[in-house]
UniProtKB/TrEMBL annotation:
Enzyme class, spelled out: transferase
Reactions performed catalytically: L-glutamyl-[protein] + S-adenosyl-L-methionine = [protein]-L-glutamate 5-O-methyl ester + S-adenosyl-L-homocysteine
Domain CheR-type methyltransferase: 1-245
SMART domains: MeTrc
Single annotated GO MF: protein-glutamate O-methyltransferase activity
InterPro entries attached to this UniProt entry: Bact_Chemotaxis_MeTrfase, CheR_C, CheR_MeTrfase, CheR_N, CheR_N_sf, SAM-dependent_MTases_sf
Single GO BP term: methylation
Region described as Disordered: spans on this chain: 264-283
EC number: 2.1.1.80
Domain of life, source organism: Bacteria
Lineage of the species this protein comes from: Bacteria, Pseudomonadati, Pseudomonadota, Betaproteobacteria, Burkholderiales
Keyword field: Methyltransferase, S-adenosyl-L-methionine, Transferase
Keyword presence, Methyltransferase: yes
Protein name: protein-glutamate O-methyltransferase
Amino acid sequence: MMLPTESDQRRFADLLQRRAGLSLPVASLPLAGARLTPRLDRLGLDSFAAYLALLEEGDELPMALDLLTTQEACFFREPEQFELLESELSRQRPVRLRLWSAGAGTGDDAYSLAMLLGDLQRAGRLGADWSVLGTDISEPRLQAAKAALYAQARLRLVSAQRRQRYCLGGEGAAGLVQMQAGLRERVRFERLDLRQALPAGEPFDVILLRHLLVYFDAATRRAIVARVLARLRPGGLFAVGAAEARLFDPDGLEPLMPGLFRKGRQQPARRSASAALVAPMPR
Ligand SMILES: C[S@@+](CC[C@H](N)C(=O)[O-])C[C@H]1O[C@@H](n2cnc3c(N)ncnc32)[C@H](O)[C@@H]1O
């Protein structure tokens, strides 16, 4: 196995910063290098320097980001946030809801939301007009999200009733679980780079931007949060990972619990021209 030298690691950190706005802690660089070595083997590269050249010149960057930001994703991760979301929405009894999972990865959050909304609708606390949009920069992740096939361990926090209602398969320890067609119809996935100006469109009622900010430097985080919040309606709910709340200025947001906020009715002044909106967002 080829491990990157210290000089490779420094060049790699610099490249990630310049090309992706990612800021990996120095201490995590050896681990990041180790995560990429199977990819080097697959590409038949015999040095990390050759991989760095590929990252500079070619289309390899999204794949590297994909490998680096892989986390132990699971449905209903940080379940307290979903519980509070459920009780907030249940109390509001909305007729119609539009939700967005930004940086959706393989879709765990998006389908968790859909299960939660499906249950609210069954309980008569939400009308039939609801949908979830999942967006991500990574094509492989979007393909996985659309396929909606998961190892059982990913559903460890999903109740037996919900599994029965919304999932197929999963027999035997190794069996994969698939989301049922009725649930999949409610969730759409699109490619979207949150570092770019976002398409304009109807505001969302709830936005999840979880376990993503941690990878970016402060300026990129600020720009992403401003852009995403511009797409949330006043009074709408906004979630980041509980540990990510300290990574941005929650100006104009009312904290409900760690990582979960309500957007104020009064909009704070926009800080960055890069938060501009330009084209219709797919619904
Ligand atoms: C650790 S995953 C989090 C997935 C999901 N939100 C969750 O909490 O399980 C981070 C995701 O952010 C995506 N990502 C990284 N940079 C991005 C960008 N500039 N725009 C959109 N998505 C991005 C990655 O592809 C990855 O799927």
